[in-house]
């Protein structure tokens, strides 16, 4: 790894995140990780292992206590809050377990929302959002609000919203956690399509079958990388 993060989508160099809970708690403890552009990585580990903290640091939702983070070769740890906000809005697409949709907005309005903050004209916003909803199979649900959609449909809206700014990196935190098995498999098929198109996908999950859709699994334990597992095309560990 070179000093500028090289050609990786994500590079973490000795990243530590410490919280004070009476005494110091190291949510991340000296993590070194490189995620190549166009790769598909799952992050697994028990509760409290640092999975969500790692995702927040990569996505510029949080800053490390120590260490350096690069996104697409650009150091983000020394950026101002405003600069990190720009990176989150333009370079990273987030998909959350709880969908995080605005309840009073329609599907197309939810997807178009990130474009509002970029000053994109309303007609262009709706056109882009409509294209993405059609892409995820919701072209007939454009004007439905979230409580008129199933869990799987809401997650598809969330994925379309994550893609609306054409991000360099897609971060998914337990994207199938609130879905039944069949719907979860459909969502994972969509992530596989996005990866096949060249997108970099990083996904936190506690479910082994979900992780097996990835090319690589990063196993965390007590804030450290325990091991990195390379998978073949059908989710089996590659023999070293």
TrEMBL record:
One MF annotation (Gene Ontology) recorded for this entry: ATP hydrolysis activity
Domain of life (superkingdom): Archaea
Keywords per UniProt: ATP-binding, Nucleotide-binding, Transport
SUPFAM superfamilies hit by this protein: P-loop containing nucleoside triphosphate hydrolases
UniProt keyword Transport present: yes
Pfam families listed in its UniProt record: ABC_tran
Signal peptide as annotated in the record: none
ABC transporter domain location: 10-240
Family matches, as Gene3D superfamilies: P-loop containing nucleotide triphosphate hydrolases (3.40.50.300)
GO cellular component, one term: membrane protein complex
Protein name per the record: Putative ABC transport system ATP-binding protein
Source organism: Haloarchaeobius iranensis
Lineage: Archaea, Methanobacteriati, Methanobacteriota, Stenosarchaea group, Halobacteria
């Amino acid at each position: 790894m070179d000093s500028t993060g090289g050609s990786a989508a994500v590079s973490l160099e000795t990243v530590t995140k410490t919280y004070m809970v009476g005494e110091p708690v190291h949510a991340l403890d000296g993590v070194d990780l490189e995620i190549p552009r166009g790769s598909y990585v799952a992050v697994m580990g028990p509760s409290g292992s640092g999975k969500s903290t790692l995702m927040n640091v990569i996505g510029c939702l949080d800053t490390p206590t120590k260490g350096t983070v690069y996104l697409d070769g650009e150091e983000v740890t020394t950026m101002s809050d405003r600069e990190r906000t720009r990176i989150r809005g333009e370079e990273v697409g987030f998909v959350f377990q709880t969908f995080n949709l605005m309840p009073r907005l329609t599907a197309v309005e939810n997807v178009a929302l990130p474009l509002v903050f970029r000053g994109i004209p309303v007609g262009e916003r709706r056109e882009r959002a409509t294209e993405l909803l059609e892409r995820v199979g919701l072209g007939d649900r454009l004007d439905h609000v979230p409580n008129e959609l199933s869990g799987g449909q809401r997650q598809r809206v969330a994925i379309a919203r994550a893609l609306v700014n054409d991000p360099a990196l897609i971060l998914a935190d337990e994207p199938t956690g609130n879905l039944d098995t069949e719907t979860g498999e459909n969502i994972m098929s969509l992530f596989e399509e996005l990866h096949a198109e060249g997108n970099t996908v990083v996904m936190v999950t506690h479910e082994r079958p979900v992780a097996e859709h990835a090319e690589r699994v990063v196993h965390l334990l007590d804030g450290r990388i325990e091991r990195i597992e390379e998978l073949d095309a059908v989710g089996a560990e590659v023999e070293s």
